[in-house]
Structure formats: structure tokens, C-alpha cells
Amino acid sequence: MAGPWALQAFPASHRIALTTQATVTITTDGTTRVDTVQAVLGASYAWASRSRLRLDGSLTDYRVAFGTQPPAMPSGLQLPRAFTAQAAKTSESLAFQLPAESSACTDPAFSAMQGLHEAWIRLPDTLKTGAEWSDTVRTLSCRDRIPLRGIATRRFRVVRGELEANGRVVVLIDRFARGRTVGDGEQFGELVALSGESSGTLRYAVDPATGQVLRAAGTNVLTLALTSSRRKQHVRQESQIVLTWNP
């Protein structure tokens, strides 16, 4: 199905569930360790307008499981947790106004919320096969007390329309992303620098009749290098990502 498809509605309110399953390979001074991590995030949010330049929401669930351990909330995280994000223009990513950036390494909610950028996409009023657009996403998280700033370029492309078994038409949109991450700080009394690159793909399914993003799935690869006067460490994280929007 080639379209075009006009978005016939603008759903302001959303509920999202995001699951990430990752394999993390850590190499330090010739020694390699492989870990598995699973994170589950739940949130609700509402756009202030069709331009999608501001939203308000609530983080309602966030649990992490390492290896075979049962999922658990990070220490110090209290839910539900309100958030607000805003952008100056459509080509820029939303930036968190609440919680404040200054809490990135003291409030576990701030790092947990960074995954929500995958849910926040701006759609043109009409979707046409082959149509492309892009934006830039800036993230801030904390890893072992080191603040990490990331910047990624995301490119979206309308792939095609499909007819589902229930008779609903959905439009498939591919997202390609490539980014860089940097950070530095003090860890256990020594200065540490971190740098890395990321790349990944997601495929979104959109219902043009309701304007609702229904689901998305894809992969992401993050590589990080940690250097200090005492050691060098390389981290490779390969992730499977699934997002589901609930009515």
C-alpha cells in the first residue's frame, strides 16, 4: 500500500510500555565479562499541542533485572514521578525541564526517563511512502557517578502501509539513529573520561485513522571506552527494544 495517508486525529494523551533487553560485554585489562540486563519502563504523557513541542507526564514503573535476578526498582527511586519536557522548535529534541538536569547523578528517575526519547516522535500531517525527515536528540544520564551527554541524529522514513488481520491499516516508519556520548568526572578518587558511539534502528507502526503510534521494535548498539591513569575499560552493549502504546 503506497498511500498517502492523512493523520485523521491527534491523540494528546498516551500510555507507553518500554522493554529493553541487553547483553553487556565489559573488557578490562584483557579480562572480559558478559552480563545481561533487562529494564521495564511504564509512563503516561500528554502533548500540549499538535506541534509536539511540550509534554507533561508521569513515570509510573521502572524496574531493572541483572542476570537471573528478579526485576527491582533502583535504590532511591520513588514512583509515580512527574516530568515535563520541552523543545524550542520541531528539529530539536525535547529537553527535560522537570526533573532538573542538575539531578542527573543524584536522582535515579532522571537516567531512567532517557529511554522515553524513543517514544517521542513528531509525525507530519500526511504520511507518504518514501518521505523522510530527521531530528536531533540530546540525552543526559549517569553511569557510575559520571554524567554522560549524548547527541544523536535520527532519520525517519515512511516504508509502506499494511493491512492487519483486524482490517486496520497501519503505516510502517523506519528510524535510523547514530550518535556520540562523552563524559568525565571523578570516580574512586581518580579522574575518568568516557567516550562512545551508538547506532540503532526502530520500526514504528502508526494508525493513520487515529494518529496513534501503536508499537515499535528494533535494536541498538552502544560502545564506550573508559580511560583513567590506572585502567582502560571497553563496554559494548547490544540491546533489543520494544515499545507498546496502550489506549
Offer a concise description of the structure.
Helices cover 2% and strands 64% of the residues. By secondary structure, it is an all-beta fold.
Can you offer a commentary on this structure?
Helix content is 2%, strand content 64%. The mean pLDDT is 93. A hairpin with a 2-residue loop joins strand 2 (13-28) and strand 3 (31-47). By secondary structure, the protein is an all-beta fold. An eleven-stranded antiparallel β-sheet has the order 6-5-4-3-2-13-12-11-10-9-8. The protein has a two-stranded antiparallel ribbon with strand order 1-7. The longest helix has 6 residues, at 108-113. The protein has one helix spanning 108-113; strands at 5-6, 13-28, 31-47, 54-66, 81-86, 95-98, 126-127, 132-143, 146-163, 169-187, 190-207, 212-227, 232-246. It is built from one helix and 13 strands; from the N terminus they run E-E-E-E-E-E-H-E-E-E-E-E-E-E.
- Please tell me what the overall shape is: globular
Which class best fits the helix and strand makeup?
Answer: mainly beta
* Backbone CA Rg: 19 Å
Low-confidence stretches: none
Strand count, sense and closure of the main sheet? 11 strands, antiparallel
Distance between the termini: 25 Å
The number of distinct helices, counting runs of at least 4 residues, comes to 1
The whole-number mean of residue pLDDT values reads 93
Quantity of strands, as a count: 13
| Helical content band | under 10%
* Order of adjacent strands in the largest pleated sheet: 6-5-4-3-2-13-12-11-10-9-8
